[in-house]
Amino acid sequence: MGGGDVFFVLSLIALIIIVLDGKRRIKKRTSAAQPTSWRLQQRQSPSKEASNLPSQSQNPAKVDLPTSPPTETPQCLSASGGSLIGSTLRIDGDVSAHETLVISGAVVGNVTAWEHSVMVNEAGSVSPRIEARTVCVAGSVIGQLVATDQAIVLSNARVSGSIDAKRLKCESGAWLQSTVT
């Protein structure tokens, strides 16, 4: 085996390692972009195919309770795409999104996503205002909640202030101290 052959084999091995690492990074990035409740559901249902998980009927606020009855999945939950404000992040200021937004952290400021959905997870909180096409709350919102299409208040949600929405869905167990228009 000559020097050129050794160099070729080592180059080929390096290329394979780079490709495999790239695939691992893409998979890691994709799972990090998914809502926390969806990832918990995926971990608790390993026997089900991943392609079936986003369309399954499961209330994300009750993922930890295996006996909870299945309910319609809110249309604001998306398994791919969008932005995530993580649980360790606190934003003091306005947030303007041009894609679906999932909030697991705290936002003290206005959140706007006119043509998209905003999901406030159980650990998430927003004040003083959310404006979006669809707003889905499993966490805490203090202030105005404005949904041009639909507002969904899940059973673990705490909403104080006002809700202005074309349609409102409120699950049993949600805590509301709001005016609704």
Keywords:
181 residues, 40% strand
Which helices and strands occur, and which strands form pairs?
Layout: H1 3-33, H2 36-44, E1 83-85, E2 90-92, E3 95-96, E4 101-103, E5 106-120, E6 125-137, E7 140-153, E8 158-170, E9 175-180
What features would you describe in this structure?
The protein has 181 residues and is an alpha/beta fold. Helix content is 22%, strand content 40%. The protein has helices at residues 3-33, 36-44, and strands at 83-85, 90-92, 95-96, 101-103, 106-120, 125-137, 140-153, 158-170, 175-180. Strands 1, 2, 3, 4, 5, 6, 7, 8 and 9 form a 9-stranded parallel sheet that branches. The chain starts with a helix and ends with a strand. Mean pLDDT is 77; it is low at 36-75.
What is the string of helix and strand elements? HHEEEEEEEEE
Name the structural class: alpha/beta
- The residue-averaged pLDDT reads 77
Question: How many beta-strand runs?
Answer: 9
| Biggest sheet overview | 9 strands, parallel
> What Rg, in angstroms, do the CA atoms define?
21 Å
Shape: elongated
Strand proportion: 35-45%
How helical, in percent, are the residues? Answer: 10-25%
- End-to-end distance: 80 Å
List low-pLDDT spans. 36-75
Number of helices: 2
